[in-house]
Amino acid sequence: MHSALCLDEITRLIAKSSQSDKPTLCSLARTCRSLGEPALDALWEQIQTITPLFLSLPKDVFTTDRKTIVWGTRIANGHPHIDMTYRLAREITPTEWITFCKYAARVKVVTHTPDDKHEDKSSNPAALWADEYAATRLLLDTMERLATETPSPLFPRLQELQWRNFDVFTYPFLRAVASPSLSSLSLEGGPFMNIGNEAEDENLLATKRAEAFEVVADLGTLFPRMESFTWWNYDGQSTPTSALSRALCHWQHLRHLNVGIPLTDTALAHLSQLPSLRVLQMSPHVRSSTSTRVLPLQGTKFFSLESFELHDDTMEDARTSFLDVTWLLRFIGGQISSRSFSISTQHIASSPDIPSLFEALSEHFVRETLTSLNFRENLYFSRMMPMQVDHTALDTYSLSFASLQPALCFENTESVILDLERKVTLTDSELLTMAQAWPRLRVLRLSSRHGWPAPGSSITFAGLEAVLEALTCIEDIAVAINGSSTPSRPDGRGGAGTAGAGHAPRTLKLLDLLNSSKGGRTGDAALSLLHILANVRSCDLRAWKFHSDGFGGVPRDQESAQWWKYVFEILKATRPELDAVAGHEKRQGASWASGIFDELLA
């Protein structure tokens, strides 16, 4: 054997280069002792569940038991059945358990990311979840029986854990895998049922649920070096707000937090002063833990934050609207120092909300720091519920210049995405004022997912030209225009095609005209666009292509879509390098979900 293979660094580099090739690693592990250890470390470094650890034991330990569990309406109505495929045939001996622990000591990552090269159970999430549940119960039972042979911690190298669980009996698993080295934890689901159906007594389930919440409260001490924590898809019968907040207050190195569970004001105060926190994704609902105010009214909060995102709770009784976001910003007080601010909601308030939201933005965000705004509104499911008034049809709910004006103070803004299901009442001069207030803007998308509802857009070709000339860094813009009129430019320099009229910058990569209305002669419209894009070498043009056609109050207009298709055909005949597409087109190889979506729209 070459002397270089005696160096541990060399052998580990060889093993790491073959990490994606499991058969090669298995062969390396059998080659010799010097290659065996690095190969085994690479082989076991990342696993999808803990099931493979049990499969490393002798074959007679397990027997195949295809036990089918059919979800009841009380537990999870609508879920498919799950097959539990492994059952313990005999007790694991202490010697076999030591072998199990030796392999567990090599694991660094447990994640559910599918392995493209192995299509067995990794392609079936239900089977993967079932195996994980069975293995978790087996692990806890074995650790309790062989406590003296179980090392502490069981996974000493574990750095990242993604764990999904809805069973109240298996939350002690988090104590079993507790390791000071773990810095990333992702939880899915919550302790709200008993998959194995051992406990039909609601009182016992409530007791086990309380014990599970205690495990959650101890996460702060179990994993003291936590840097990334996620808990999503929680759908429990009670909210672990206090337990989770207790854990959060212990973490001093947290960099990324994503939770759909309301937090306490104490936890929010702790997060606001963490120098390490970079990404915060949370619910805007905060619950008071004391009768006195915990957060100071003044001062800078979240001073190292790069991204601040507020989204809908996963709890059924906690709906998020823009008014809730406004309340949270005023509750936090002071100045929030974040580069990006995002909101996503599926609900709408019963009173006008946009003006107060943008006023709160201008009051509580550091003006020199904020560079990105991203507000997304999807009211489709809200419209399915009985409502006396469709608030989005009211004038007070429109996206107007007056409501947006407070946000113009953020002069370093680079991206503005406002996907709202509301009327847009902006004029040429108002849109130009926005462009002049945000000279560094690279992305401007206004209601790009749903289009501009009736009465449509009053932006003209000349107005679009003036805006694109003012935005010297623009790369992506989505606005609807009125194709039937081209009045004088809002800055008084004359219409499109006149002497001195400007052009879009060369940085432009995407011009999305959304549900722009049709005009008169297609050749005139094409000529205006050619003039606007004279300096642009390559650009994608879109019109009447939505992600959510017809779901945001904008019905399909085949005549307008066809008119823009003719305009784009003239453009492509003149400038083939422009990729211009109008209307909704089905493409070869579209997913089955897209096909179903098209049928629903029809």
Lay out the secondary structure.
Blueprint lengths: L7 H10 L4 H10 L1 H12 L1 E2 L3 H5 L6 E8 L3 H4 L5 E7 L5 H11 L4 E2 L14 H21 L14 E5 L8 H4 L7 E5 L13 H16 L1 H4 L5 E5 L8 H8 L7 E4 L3 E2 H8 L6 E4 L3 E2 L12 E11 L11 H11 L2 E11 L8 H11 L7 E6 L2 H4 L17 H4 L10 E5 L8 H10 L5 E4 L14 H10 L5 E3 L31 E3 L9 H11 L7 E4 L14 H17 L4 E4 L9 H10 L1
Parallel strand pairs: 1-4, 4-5, 5-6, 6-7, 7-8, 8-10, 9-11, 10-12, 12-13, 13-14, 14-15, 15-16, 16-17, 17-18, 18-19, 19-20
Antiparallel strand pairs: 2-3
Fold and architecture overview:
The protein folds into 3 domains: 45-245, no CATH class; 255-410, no CATH class; 423-602. 33% of the residues lie in helices and 16% in strands. It contains 21 helices and 20 strands. It is an alpha/beta fold. The strands form 3 sheets. A 16-stranded parallel sheet has the order 1-4-5-6-7-8-10-12-13-14-15-16-17-18-19-20. The chain has a two-stranded antiparallel sheet with strand order 2-3. Strands 9-11 form a two-stranded parallel sheet.
